[in-house]
Amino acid sequence: MLDDPHRQKLHDLETRQVTLAEKLACLQQQHAPETREEE
Q1: At residue 32, does pLDDT exceed 80?
Q2: Which superkingdom, per the lineage (predicted)?
Q3: What is the pTM of this model?
Q4: Residues 29, 35: contact at Cβ < 8 Å?
């Protein structure tokens, strides 16, 4: 398998996008009215 830096960068971007989406979902859960407030 060839180690393509450009492809690796693209993969990192996709991974980061997923991580941001997960963080956003986590934040939305934290700020949800039914969720107890713990920072």
Answers
A1: no
A2: Bacteria
A3: 0.47
A4: yes
Taking phi over 0 as left and psi of -120 to 50 as alpha, with beta for the rest, 4 belongs to beta
Confidence (pLDDT) at 19: 93
Q: What is the Cα–Cα distance from 34 to 25, expressed in whole angstroms? A: 15
Cα separation, 31 vs 23, whole angstroms: 12
On whether the CB atoms of residues 33 and 39 are closer than 8 A, the answer is: no
Question: Which residues 6+ apart lie within 8 Å of 8 measured at CB?
Answer: none
Q: Give the list of residues 6+ apart from residue 15 with CB closer than 8 angstroms, or none.
A: none
Are 11 and 5 spatial neighbours (Cβ–Cβ below 8 Å)? no
